[in-house]
Every structure is written in C-alpha cells, then in structure tokens.
UniProtKB/TrEMBL annotation:
Stored Gene3D superfamilies: Phosphorylase Kinase, domain 1 (3.30.200.20), Transferase(Phosphotransferase) domain 1 (1.10.510.10)
TM segment ranges: none
Residues forming coiled coils: 537-571
Residue ranges of domain Protein kinase in the record: 48-334
A GO MF term: protein serine/threonine kinase activator activity
Family under the similarity heading: Belongs to the protein kinase superfamily. STE Ser/Thr protein kinase family. STE20 subfamily.
Name of the protein in its database record: Protein kinase domain-containing protein
Biological processes per GO annotation: regulation of stomatal opening
Keywords (A to Z) from UniProt: ATP-binding, Coiled coil, Nucleotide-binding
InterPro entries reported in the protein's UniProt record: Kinase-like_dom_sf, Prot_kinase_dom, Protein_kinase_ATP_BS, STRAD_A/B-like
Residue positions binding ATP: K77
Amino acid sequence: MHPSSTTHFKPCFNFTLYLNIVQASFMATKQEEKSTKRVQYPLDPSSYKILDEIGAGVSAIVYKAICVPMNSLVAIKSIDLDRSRPDFDDVRREAKTLSLLSHHNILNAHCCFTVDQRLWVVMPFMAGGSLQSIISHSFPDGLTEPCIAVVLKETLNALSYLHGQGHLHRDIKAGNILVDTNGTVKLADFGVSASIYEYPNSSSSSTSASTSAPCLSSSSSIRLTDVAGTPYWMAPEVIHSHIGYSFKADIWSFGITALELAHGRPPLSHLPPSKSMILKITKRFRFSDLDKYRKGHGGKNKFSKAFKDMVASCLDQDPSKRPTAEKLLKHPFFKNCKGSDCLVKNVLQGLPSVEKRYKESKIMHETTPSDDDDHEGDMVKQENVKQRRISGWNFNEDGLELEPVFPPTPSDHHQTKEDDAIVKVVRFESEMVHDESQEHDVASLGAISKLNTSAINVNVNNENVAEHLMMSCIVDRSSRVEKIGGVQVGGVLNNKETMLTTLNVLKGSLEQELGQVKLIMNMIQGEEIHQVVDDRQEHMDQEISRLRTELENERKKSLQLELQLQNFRLN
Ligand SMILES: Nc1ncnc2c1ncn2[C@@H]1O[C@H](COP(=O)(O)OP(=O)(O)OP(=O)(O)O)[C@@H](O)[C@H]1O
C-alpha cells in the first residue's frame, strides 16, 4: 500500500450482497439522472475507446477514453472488485454520493456500470490531472502563494457545499483535487466520504472504534468513529477514532493539503506512515502552538502571515476551534484571491499532458527504488532517528516542516539499557512499515479500530511492542526447544550434562526475555502516567485561561462601575 493511499478499515463484506448494492446504487443514479434530465452516458464498455492510462490508485486504474457516441473525452476509473473487496462499501458510497451532489467544484460521475469483475466509473476528463501529479512532476517545492489560494478557495467552495449537504469528504488531499485546462478546480474521489444522513440519529454513547456507525457527541453534533483517509492528512481525532470526529476532520486535512501545495508534500511524509508514529506526532506537537515556534526564527519567510494563520487555524488540535469551511472562505488569505487564469498561466502552461506525466512517473518508479524502497531509504537516512529517542518536534516555519528533537546523549555508542529498549521499539515500528504484505500493519490498525478503550494511543504502541516481543519469544523458544528436541530424537538424551547445559542456556535467555517484558510493562505504565499528566496539564491550562478571561471581565466591569461612580459624583 502506498503511504499516500487512502485507507479505510472496516469488516469484510459479502460479495453477492455487494453486487446487489452496486446494482441498486446504479439504478438510483440512473433514476436521479432521469429526474434531473442529465445526459445519459452509455452503459456498455463497447461505447468507450480507451486511449491511455492516466493514473492508478490502490485498487483502481484511471484511463483517458473517448465516449464514441458522444464524441467526448472521459476519464474511466476501473475498480477491481476482486481486489477491493474490503472497500465495497466505499465504492457503493462513492456512486451514491456522486449521484446526489451537484456543484461546480465537485467532480460528478457521468455513469457507472460493471464490466466483468470491474466497476467502471465514467467521469468528465480533467486534462490537468490531480494537483498531486502536477506538483510531483513540475513543482516539487510547491506552488506559489497566489496559485495555492486559487486551488484552496475552489476546494473550500466544494467543501462548504459538501458539509452543507451533510457530507464529509474524509480524504481531502492534493491527489483528490483535479484541474482542467481552463483552470477549473474540482474535488474528486468520494470513496471514503460519509453522509450524516446515512445513519439514523442515535443517542448512543458508545465509543467503540470498531464500527463505522457514527455516535453523537455531547455537543449533539454527529460523530463518526471509523478510521478513514490517508495517514499524513488524517486529523488527530480521526487517528484517535474512538473519540469520534465530524466535519472539522476535513478542515484539518484541508490545512495539511495547504502545506502539501506549499511545500510539495505533506508534513512528516519523510517519516514512515506507521500509525503509531503519527499518533506520537499528533500527541506531542500542537499546531496551535505555532507562534511559540515562530519566535527565534529570523529567517526570510516564504509565505505570508495570512497563509500561515489560515493553516494554523485549520490545524488546531481541538476540532471545535477549527473554522468551518464557510468561515474559512472569509479568511483574509482568500480576500484578494486571483481567478483560475492564474493557474492557467503559472501552473498549466507548458505542463506535459496527464498521460505523459503518468508514463514518466511510472518509468521513474521502475528505474529508481520503489516507494517502499524509498521509505527504506528514508529509514536508512533516518538511522539516527531510529537509534535515538525523539523527545519532541520542532516546527520549522521556513520549511513548514516538523523536525524531530533528540535529547542530548553522551555518546551514540554508549546507550543506556532504557535507550536500547526504545531503539527496539522504534525499529519494530519501522519493520512493520516495511512488511511488504502490509497485512501486519493493516491487521494492527484493524485491531486498533476494534479497541474499545480510552487509552488507544498507548495501546497501539504497546500492543505492537508486546505482540512483537511475544512473537520473537515464541519463534526463538520454539527453535531452541526444537534444537533440544533434535537432541532427544538424536538419542543423545543420555548425555545429561549436555542437556543441562542446553537447559541452562534456555533458562538464561528466558530470564533475559522476562527482563524485557518487565521493561516493556514499565514503559506502558510510564506512558499511561505520561498521558494522564498531559491531560491534567491541558485541563489546567484551559482552567487558567478561563480564569484569566473571567478576571479580565471582572476588571472591565469594576472599571466601568468606577467611571459611572465618578460621573455620578460629578453630576
Ligand atoms: N477525472 C479525471 N481526469 C483526469 N485525471 C484523473 C481523473 N481522475 C483521476 N485522474 C488521475 O488519476 C490519478 C489516480 O486517481 P485515483 O482517484 O484512482 O487515485 P488516488 O486518489 O491518487 O489514490 P487513492 O484514491 O487510492 O488514494 C489522479 O492522481 C489523477 O492524476
């Protein structure tokens, strides 16, 4: 799985049931088209002539094609139903959502139908392709601010409409923002979008993260609890999905997308997309503390204050403090926003076609290490990160990047026992990420989403560690026992001394492992305490700020009273 690929974790699906659902969604789409008098695109594959491959997702290939009877260019997303079995719900949802939405900045599908084991979604062809493909090909260091403003404003229009209709997109990123030759920007890919109307209102207070059903928060706003989206763009509350999330999760991803457009890639994308790593990051770094990190940075700022303020407001850890899409549209950053011709002149002009870019990127992939290898490369580059404990994160304002902070160590070669343990933990995380099958990671994430616990982030790390430890114990021990077994089978059992020596070695290693287990247990307890302390600190900070406001109000009131009293005396 590509790190920037969409992730959606949910229970397995019944294939026959799924085909029925797609059929039903499909019929609903057709009926909708009839009632809104939309042009009906042909529903048979022979009406389309595939011209080129223009992109690929996790289980889909996107083609540029021509609809022969209409003589118009289209994009066909061909989804492998066999490969995307766990995503059936997404596909159905995408078809249904798209059939109900109509907005200038939202990419609607013309139609969809099944071709053998594939679902074809026929869409308007957006000649510029996705912003991600544009950036990665021609703007690796990001776009200029005026161009970013145009893209973001158009995306916000779509988001504001979408939220107004009760939908969350849940996968906002440059890869899902498409642009046409005339600079029109459209939001696409509703595979993991969710509608609050799909779920009956429930007063359930369940915080189970295993279901995709939403629950109501104390503020009575709808809250979803399933883990959906793409890791680097995911809001903290989506990662900590047991607490529930709502429209503001899209605003976080929008903020990350702004940084992606500005910087060429999302923050932290140089780190492996291990969920536990992201949990650590979002826990430790408060984007709302941006100002703290600004102090002392005297370098030349590439981006305006308005841009940074806008991004910082989207990246507030507290979803309730993030602005709505509608409010964001009124942010000063968008005040003097240019028109789409700005994109035509500065981004699209001279840009190779989407198919050419895709071909080039494929060749690049073949000749250079794969994404996974890239991450391996990243991991090698970050050998120091693995070797040393990260104590926090600094925000590099100029680079709009998070940088790890390491506690000073006397020498890298003289690590303490505790550091050793942490190195193992971090290494294990990296191993998980590099597991080719990805099943381990996905399975862990699935397990995480099933956890009904308030200390989910602590459990994630430690479950992985414990699981790893247990597995290595089992493997090691079974091979050792096998060896002893081999000795037995070999008839050397009469050599008591050899047997005793072997057993002593085994005992020693078991004691060593027991020590490791104890160490891990201490770490888990330590993390829990750390979490409690963090929560208390946060609570105290909030209380102090509330008291300060109250004090300020009282001071103003008494000032007013004093003024009134003076006036009274003068009169
Ligand atoms: N309607 C379209 N017109 C032109 N190009 C398109 C269109 N739809 C998709 N593409 C191109 O195909 C690429 C892949 O799109 P797709 O939606 O399958 O994958 P993704 O969003 O990158 O991945 P995933 O959805 O798996 O996270 C896009 O990045 C874009 O360049």
